Amino acid sequence: MTDSWATFGADLHLDLSAGRGLRAGLTEALREAARSGRLAAGTRLPSSRSLAADLGIARNTVAEAYAELVAEGWLTARQGSGTRVAERARPRRSAAATAVRVRRPARGRPAYNLQPGSPDLSAFPRAAWLTAARRALTDAPNEAFGYALDPRGRIELREALAGYLARARGVYADPERIVLCAGFVHGLTLLAGMLRARRVREVAVEGYGLDIHRDLLAKAGLRTRPLGVDEEGARTGELGAGAGAVLLTPAHQFPTGVALTPARRAAAVDWARTTGGLILEDDYDGEFRYDRQPVGALQGLDPDRVVYLGTASKSLAPGLRMGWMVVPPGLVEEVLAVKGLTDWTSSALDQLTLAEFIRSGAYDRHVRGMRLRYRRRRDELLAAVAGRVGVSGIAAGLHAVLDLPEGATERSVIQSAAWQDLALGGLSRHRHPEADLPPRAAVVVGYGTPSDSAWTPALAALSAVLP
Amino acid sequence: MTDSWATFGADLHLDLSAGRGLRAGLTEALREAARSGRLAAGTRLPSSRSLAADLGIARNTVAEAYAELVAEGWLTARQGSGTRVAERARPRRSAAATAVRVRRPARGRPAYNLQPGSPDLSAFPRAAWLTAARRALTDAPNEAFGYALDPRGRIELREALAGYLARARGVYADPERIVLCAGFVHGLTLLAGMLRARRVREVAVEGYGLDIHRDLLAKAGLRTRPLGVDEEGARTGELGAGAGAVLLTPAHQFPTGVALTPARRAAAVDWARTTGGLILEDDYDGEFRYDRQPVGALQGLDPDRVVYLGTASKSLAPGLRMGWMVVPPGLVEEVLAVKGLTDWTSSALDQLTLAEFIRSGAYDRHVRGMRLRYRRRRDELLAAVAGRVGVSGIAAGLHAVLDLPEGATERSVIQSAAWQDLALGGLSRHRHPEADLPPRAAVVVGYGTPSDSAWTPALAALSAVLP
């Protein structure tokens, strides 16, 4: 049996064998730590003075133990760099350690990526974000560092969002009814739980949409029934009494890119009022609109029947994991019952930083700048493919749909793109398996994804692979 | 039917009635936005030049509409502060808005708080954290701002933690087997899901522990069976074949404060090896130890049978929502299957900041500083209550247990504390309802909770209410 000692000053944990001399015990404990790989090669040990003080023993004892291990080759000592675990110490690995294999969604990265779903990550406003973080950290009350007291999230961010969403997206947004979440998937997971708790069994979805959203609903026990999608958006007139909710992308249908027409919006709201159903509005790229067109949030038509969902994933960066829901009055408690009172998921400091970022006007400035950048790319895309393919979905957002000419298949175009080291996505993978939609061969081009420097060659590669 | 226009430059969304003059339409849309409360009082409108440019109309048209609404009292215009929505505009609230009521865990805050579970929030190292955030933001690769590619979390943080946990806590920590999470509750939720997927039905827990952890396990479909707790920690010899896992706090039992003895540790590991059971090690305040004593992580005894869980909630701040698990090799994929490939929950920037904070030595410095501060408070607590109550659990952590003398009840002491505006917690509320434990009247004093300035009066209030 070994006794276990902790040396708190230096935060170096050592197992000192009982019944041995101090020096021998210390030497063996250090040797074992290095040999077993617990202390990785290169780890700097505390100074002999500091370790001796922490262990309450003579400094010489520590120095002698160190010297012995240097002589044995377990440690190295160099002027100015202190005593470190030597490189030769082979790390011990537990039996199955090498067998750990984690599936990663991305294989090798292609040189160029025009798949939809990501903004230009190189444009993240690092300096402005840091400025906001500095102010947020300086101004934060102490309680902000503690366990969250409000399961909806920090009031500062809910207030900033309420102002912004009302002004920029036409949302009726009371801070009391905003619930923060860690992105759209988290928000939809909470809503799916809430719908299940209400005994809803079926959710209508758009016939074209993201499979991860459909899968998430299915995993929560909700059957998804596809609506048709045409040039006016989802065919909301098809909504029946069977569905308890409908998930829509009114501002810019994903992936076809059309805006839901006023008539279709009215039909959705009528359905909700008549049947008591709920509309889940995914306003995923509502900020990016390039032409003057009707695009207010659907939520503005009936805040009592629409849950509005937005995120910073397209406008800033997915890595922030910041999302928000504007929930009808009667449903706030039900959503929070699913969210739970104990698991808040996103850092208070990030919430305060985003609040400051919005309040200071930096969010608007960033969105405006990105809008110009994306619009320019869209125009360049249009110019590059004009006359060769049909282009749609271009009034807004970060992607467009290119309909391929007769004879060309999605698969062949995506395959030749892969040969050019260009990642490209097809339209058909977004089809609901049960959707009743006419056949359509098209690729979905995410022109927001590349950095500025990668954009021009990516566009050239695309141009080369189109039939 | 109204047409809806969005003005993208200024990000002000307006509904312009069709079939009217431009100026009349604009005036009405602005009046409606202010009247309905969508634009809150005080909201600053874009300049007439900017709005005109965005709408593609003459600046005069906008200026006239603004002037008309100022005359009507809906807007105010002041030199240097621009045009804003006037205060008199009453916000429209949807019918049930005033009925939103959110249960908050905290009622009014007491003047002094000696309940356990929180570190001193006033000591959060704001400047050092900001320094780390600045470096992390500067050094971050662009992909860090995107959707996470590894469901375990950023490799930078997993590597920093592996080094720290090996050095300071005696953990065998391979970055490949570290899974980041948003705090202990999130981690335990993931493990509960993993255990359920393995068809485990019962988890042994300590007879004294946190009810939110027991409730979480129960909600996941796991029955909890209590172990006895005495002066050597949890009675791990009571572990039987029925439980598939055991949740332990070996470094500093919560709430009794004792360290699990070597014999009890060995018994737990023997049980795990014999039955194939799993040990979940909650190392919740492992960094804070004041006396030289055996306190390495239990995980060091058998990394193949122990899941180690740690967080930054006690060492830094709960508001960061940062936790980590060191998972046995064979279980990483099973844990990730529950975590999901799409919901990463914590911000990449926070992960990179914490990695930098650890790497730079700021984490060690902060922990050492806090250890001195908490030890001083512990000593002051001991001095203040000496001879009046039995004190235990004082070798480590942020709380101590005060056993009340014959005749005094928890309830009476907590009640008189409340009269002094002092929040105090009893021991009995942490008892598992089925635990076979001797009766014990005691209060659990969290001496880490107050700020430095509140500590002295809090201690005086405590002293006044003890029998």
Plain-language structure description:
The structure is a homodimer of 467-residue chains. The first copy, chain A, has helices at residues 22-35, 48-55, 59-72, 126-139, 155-169, 184-197, 211-219, 262-275, 332-339, 348-359, 362-385, 410-419, 452-465, and strands spanning 3-7, 12-16, 75-78, 82-85, 112-113, 178-181, 202-206, 223-227, 229-230, 233-234, 245-248, 278-282, 306-311, 323-326, 390-392, 399-403, 422-423, 425-426, 442-446. Residues 1-10 and 89-107 of chain A have low confidence and may be disordered. Chain A has 467 residues and is α/β, with parallel strands linked by helices. Chain A is globular and about 85 Å long. The first copy, chain A, has 3 domains: 4-85, Orthogonal Bundle (Arc Repressor Mutant, subunit A), CATH 1.10.10; 112-118 and 364-465, Aspartate Aminotransferase, domain 1; 125-361, Type I PLP-dependent aspartate aminotransferase-like (Major domain) (Aspartate Aminotransferase, domain 2, 3-Layer(aba) Sandwich), CATH 3.40.640.10. Chain A starts with a strand and ends with a helix. Chain A has 13 helices and 19 strands.
Summarize the structure.
The structure is a homodimer of 467-residue chains. By secondary structure, the first copy, chain A, is of the alpha/beta class. Chain A has helices at 22-35, 48-55, 59-72, 126-139, 155-169, 184-197, 211-219, 262-275, 332-339, 348-359, 362-385, 410-419, 452-465, and strands at residues 3-7, 12-16, 75-78, 82-85, 112-113, 178-181, 202-206, 223-227, 229-230, 233-234, 245-248, 278-282, 306-311, 323-326, 390-392, 399-403, 422-423, 425-426, 442-446.
